[in-house]
Amino acid sequence: MLCSSYMCVLVCGLMLAIWVDIGVADQFLQGEPGLPGRLDEFAKTMSSGFNATEVKLDLLNKRQSRMATDLLRLKTKSSQTMKMLYTMLTYRKKFERKVLAGINSIVNTLEEIKHCLGCTCPKGYERYSSATCGTFCYRFESNNCSSWSAARSVCQAEGGDLLVPSECYYQFFREKAQQHEGTCSHFWIGGNTNTPGSNYVNVKGDPVPSSFSFWSVGQPDGLLGESCLEMRSYLTNYLMNDYHCDRPEGFVCQI
Ligand SMILES: [Ca+2]
């Protein structure tokens, strides 16, 4: 009895469910009021969404394409800029070289002007300066061995003369002579005589007296016609001597 009641309820439930489904299907088939409209609206919305997406994608493609073009242009410009910079650097180097050459030229000119003004000595000459003995330029020639006359001509061609012997600075030149020894022996200096052994005068025409402190012992002796003045190295360590004018010796120029 209980079993048949349960079966009855189950059967009734199944029948009710089938009835409801049939109702819904029927309702759908007959058309729910407003549903087609909403479906159309939904379709339109979807279509509009797709269209909008396509437009956006198209825009993105165009932007991408424009960016690619811009990048290419930028790359070209960068390349041109690099070339321009390289050219500028090249010109700058050339310009700097020209400026340096110009500066060197100015410096050389200033050096020449300084020489002309007597601030410094000509090339090859050294400067002598003393509060009591004055200032001048000098050079020792140790390898171009010459007669007294030829040596004097060389010094005169350089704008000076042979060194004038002077009490004031003779000792200084004795010491310098030792530092300038070369191929030639002894050094001619600026003094001679027409009467060997006496009446010596310097190249300025002033007398070189026999009382001169730096005559070598026993000099001047005018031996066998010696009549030109030298700083003699042998035995006397560059004290002054009269000697044969035609002998080749070194010499000292003074400007
Ligand atoms: Ca002598």
From TrEMBL:
InterPro entries: C-type_lectin-like, C-type_lectin-like/link_sf, Ca-Dep_Lectins_ImmuneDev, CTDL_fold. This is C-type lectin domain-containing protein. Residues 133-254 form the C-type lectin domain. Residues 1-25 form the signal peptide. PANTHER family: C-TYPE LECTIN DOMAIN-CONTAINING PROTEIN (PTHR22801:SF63), LITHOSTATHINE (PTHR22801). The lineage of its organism: Eukaryota, Metazoa, Spiralia, Lophotrochozoa, Mollusca. SUPFAM superfamilies: C-type lectin-like. Keywords: Signal. It comes from the Eukaryota. The keyword Protease does not apply.
